[in-house]
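User: Hello, can you help with two protein structures?

Assistant: Certainly.
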Amino acid sequence: MKIHHIAIICSDYEVSKKFYTEILGLSILQEVYRKERQSYKLDLGIGEEYVIELFSFPNPPDRPSRPEACGLRHLAFSVENVHNKREELIGKGLKCEDIRIDEFTGKEFFFTQDPDELPLEFYQM
């Protein structure tokens, strides 16, 4: 039917919460602290559409997350204007790759990363 959500475990909850809400502009739908797991669970949306669960856990192990590593390659967001989004994110202090062209669709896109180096793609719609 559709993807329900994407779950991300972060190394620093407050840093990642600020990144996804203040830098990327996702909305907080719900935030809970699970005392028995020493874990926050933050439900984030694009508007009111639930898209990401952001988790904190004590001492999570590292996982390779480079674009060509086995496993999750990247998380992609569609945007109305790739050039404007790139300039906005650079203005907020992010390092963004140059804009590239998808050889199959002809659409523009670029990559940046979240605080835990999860690759994030912004794709022209």
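That covers the first. Now for the second protein you mentioned:
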Amino acid sequence: MKKGKRVLLFLLAGLLLGGGYGYYQYNRKSPDVKAERAAITTNAPALVAAFSSDEPSANRKYVEKIIAVTGTVTGVKIDTAGQATVFLDGNDPMAAVTCSFYDTETATVKKLTPGQQVTVKGVCTGKLMDVVLNKCSIVH
């Protein structure tokens, strides 16, 4: 009977620890990219080239990290919901860097023009057709 109580106690402790960890993860706030320092600083052509030449290695280096990317604006898009997106030239006809911004950055993004040099800080989520940065803000 002692062995059964011990197993039950370990099970209960495991459930409590697992539940506590789950509660912590559920309520954890994601970092504010605007306030965080960039882990990596690069330029748009180098970032696109890294993903084009060796995507698994680039994923390990950049994905889920806050990076600052400097590049030439090729386009600005603001949808009907006010979501701002900036496209940076990657010196590759098949890929660019697509940056999706916080809603609070829309007014700043509206001032950008094609051909302008800009540094954008955001969380890299990998490459689809373009290299994607989310939760972006303009670095001043």
